[in-house]
Every structure is written in structure tokens, then in C-alpha cells.
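Title: Request for sanity check on Integral membrane protein prediction

Description:
We are preparing a figure and want to confirm that the structure record we downloaded matches what your pipeline produces today. Could someone re-run it with the sequence below and paste the raw C-alpha cells into this thread? We only need the C-alpha cell string, no images.
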Amino acid sequence: MTTFADARRARAARAALAGVAGFTAFWAAAGAVGLIGGGADPGATVTARLPWHSTAVAGVLLALVIGAPMALTAAAVVRRDHRSDTVAMLSGAVLVGWVTVQPAIIGQFHWLQPVFGLLGLTVAALGLYLRGYRGR
């Protein structure tokens, strides 16, 4: 049986998850637009290490691999989709994987990598937390 306090905690977790996933999706989209449009120039050294040496390809990958799953997570949580916990765990894990592999690909470390790694862990952890409320 779900108590009022349990329901409040689940509601707070859903709100936090929607906020963090939406925030992450927004900045992934902004980064993708910057990379595709040329407003974000990572420099010649980093560009040479990107797939096909293209910031546009990197921007499209950022939008598809990070932005879209995070937007889907935020939308699923807002819609109270019963799969939102699973979507959150997957999109959070993908983000953690992305920022873990990224320094090896681009050959540089940036302070945003651990920040977004923590955001990915937060999304995954909130998804795991909400999994406990499934079916209640």
C-alpha cells in the first residue's frame, strides 16, 4: 500500500527527473546546434579527432545519442508513462558512457564532462528509484 509520504516522494522524484532530463536535453540540443552551425568551434586538434573530422557529424551524434533520449525521458516522465523509469536508466547510462569515452576520442578533458556525467548518474539513479514505485 502506498502512503501519502511515498506518493509525495515519488512525485518529487518525477519532478526532479523531468527537470534534470529536460535540462540535459536542452543543453545537448544547444551544443548540437553550435557544432552543426559553427558557433561552437572545438579547435583544429579536436576537430581532426572527430568522426569524419566533422563538427556537423559530432553535432548530429550529440543530438541523436544524448539530446533525443533525454528529451524522451523528460516527456515520458511528464506523461507518467509506465516505462519512464527504464527510459531514464538507459538514457542516464548512455550519457555516462558518452562522457567517459569522449576524452579518449577528442584527446582532451573538459570540466563539463564530469558535470554531465553526474547529471547522467542522477537521471539513471532517479529512474532506478522510481522503478520501486512501479505498480503502486
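Thanks, this matches our download. DSSP finds five helices and no strands in the chain.
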